[in-house]
Amino acid sequence: MSDLRRFVNDPEKVVEDELNGYLLVHGDQVRRSERNARVLVNRQRNPHRKVALISGGGSGHEPAFLGYLGKGYLDAVAVGEVFASPPADAFLDAALEANIDGEVIALIGNYAGDVMNMKMAAAKAGRQNVRIHILTSKDDIASAPKEEIDRRYGMAAGFFTWRFAGYLADQGLDAEEIVARVENLSNSIRSIVVGLSSLEIPSAGKENFVVPEGKMEFGIGHHGEAAIDTPELMSANMIGKKMTEALLNDYALERSTSFVAMISGLGATPPMEQYIMADAVNQAFKTLNHSLSKVYVGNFITSLNMNGISLTLVPAESQLVSSLETPYQPNEFKTF
């Protein structure tokens, strides 16, 4: 066992234990698939949907991915081991459980294992007359230069794309229309992450990396992928400005623009500091002649027990705002 104190039983079976507890709490909204114990299915699907929505990925990012099942959101998710892609058969079973008239849209992060396994699942599903349309998020600006955007990772964008896709699906739109609109939105989303301390994968029993004393990891990945810079630790206002500037520079905007922002803790970041960072980002926007129309703060996309913050921006276009104003909530955010 690790020297770091954690609430686990067998470090090799944390996902099984997590799913048991999750279903205990949210079993009125979510069920476990009879096809696959690592697939969870939404009980509250809108009957007007013509297209099913699925996602999935490695555990350790909760509430992603299982927490975004629910009314107006995802229909099924595949659950992988900690920071590991679900196998192709889990993605396939998620698609088959969610299937509506042979049309399924998979919204996943642009990580090699997830993409490879989802493509394998799509090939198998096709032989069962189920078509899986694959959309990948590529919002992490630190993971590759803008000129190589197809190499960029992405995860935090799901906060917006899962909701927007659900909004469109609930209107009864067909798969091609949803794919086109969600892809357009996804391409406009940008994220960056700052880490102040490491994370620990339970089965590894040690910290995944080391943040030097008095430093911070600017542009680190959600799995601890190497940062693009390790500068001196700054004040919250300075960190917020540096993150905001990096994202706005990637957009290369020519006029003042209104954005929706999502600020997520990474697992060990106190809510107090998340709100401090929200104010810091807002102050940065004011000095840079852009504006925020809406800000979300909370633990939306995490990285086990890392102390850090992710900032995700998307231009506040009308359809996205309309989707965010609907009253639906994924099951994770219903706590009583």
From TrEMBL:
<keyword id="KW-0808">Transferase</keyword>
<dbReference type="InterPro" id="IPR004006">
    <property type="entry name" value="DhaK_dom"/>
</dbReference>
<dbReference type="InterPro" id="IPR050861">
    <property type="entry name" value="Dihydroxyacetone_Kinase"/>
</dbReference>
<keyword id="KW-0418">Kinase</keyword>
<dbReference type="Pfam" id="PF02733">
    <property type="entry name" value="Dak1"/>
</dbReference>
<dbReference type="GO" id="GO:0005829">
    <property type="term" value="C:cytosol"/>
</dbReference>
<dbReference type="GO" id="GO:0004371">
    <property type="term" value="F:glycerone kinase activity"/>
</dbReference>
<dbReference type="GO" id="GO:0019563">
    <property type="term" value="P:glycerol catabolic process"/>
</dbReference>
<protein>
    <submittedName>
        <fullName>Dihydroxyacetone kinase, ADP-binding subunit</fullName>
        <ecNumber>2.7.1.29</ecNumber>
    </submittedName>
</protein>
<feature type="domain" description="DhaK">
    <location>
        <begin position="10"/>
        <end position="333"/>
    </location>
</feature>
